[in-house]
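INFO batch 0412 | record 1 of 1 | parsing
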Amino acid sequence: MAVEPLSQKEIEDRLAELPGWTVEDDRLTRTYRLGSHFAATALVVHIAQVQEELNHHSDLTLGYNTVRLAVNTHSAGGALTDLDFSLARKVEDLAPGHGAS
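INFO prediction complete | emitting tokens
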């Protein structure tokens, strides 16, 4: 089943529902700042599990106390699709209350 790119309006509407998320270099991105390296590492493990369940993976970067995600859909030519926003919503549900940096 082909995945269709979202229109600019659809992207803007979905971003409005995901505070802290932005589009940078054609990728949906967010950085979380946590209280410790251990907390950031734990979040990475939870995100990795969600990505496996969705079979949709972001670039995931672990810093000392930060976690950064950047995602687009390769099978749609690097465009943003519903898959990217579904992943973002699930990650957001995992990390409530963690501020963006």
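INFO post-check: Helices lie at 8-16, 37-54, 82-94.
INFO record closed
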